[in-house]
Design goal:
Length: 158
């Protein structure tokens, strides 16, 4: 089965948020940093230093907000270039493996890193850092997901 993938800004934005925040859990460090700075702020407040407490509080929430703001700004800038849906690449799924961009030859199913099904798309990770986005209608996605789950047991998260 050959899929001609068309991406739009919305699909790309959903993938970027999924990959960064859910799969790689990149939200943990900024939240941990904010928690530590909040604790330091409370300790300073109990010690009687209101100014130092406010500094820790501002840094603790300002830097994570700047981090997430910058990330969302970059994702939105990239997504704006894809506002109109356009053909991006073609992926061929066969009994022997996957062929597509960034894959030399045919990648056997045993070497596929993971498959996820999120928000009306399937994300086929050919390596831990490279994914093929496979959007589709509800009927097409069911058939695609069935095919992928038959060939990638144990390497998927629905």
């Amino acid at each position: 089965m050959t899929l001609h993938v068309e991406l739009d800004g919305r699909t790309f934005r959903r993938f970027a948020l999924f990959d960064t925040l859910r799969r790689r859990r990149m939200w943990r460090r900024p939240v941990l940093f904010a928690g530590i700075m909040l604790a330091l702020s409370l300790i300073c407040l109990m010690g009687g230093s209101l100014l130092l407490s406010l500094v820790f509080l501002a840094i603790g929430f300002g830097l994570p907000l700047a981090y997430f703001g910058t990330f969302l700004t970059q994702v939105n800038a990239q997504a704006r270039r894809l506002d109109a849906s356009r053909a991006v690449y073609a992926v061929t799924l066969s009994e022997s493996g996957v062929q597509g961009p960034g894959v030399e030859g045919i990648l056997p199913w045993t070497e596929v890193h993971a498959v996820f099904r999120v928000n009306g798309c399937a994300y086929l990770y050919v390596t831990p850092s490279r994914a093929l986005i496979l959007p589709g209608s509800a009927a097409d996605l069911e058939a695609l997901w069935s095919f992928l789950t038959q060939h990638t047991p144990g390497r998927r998260i629905p």
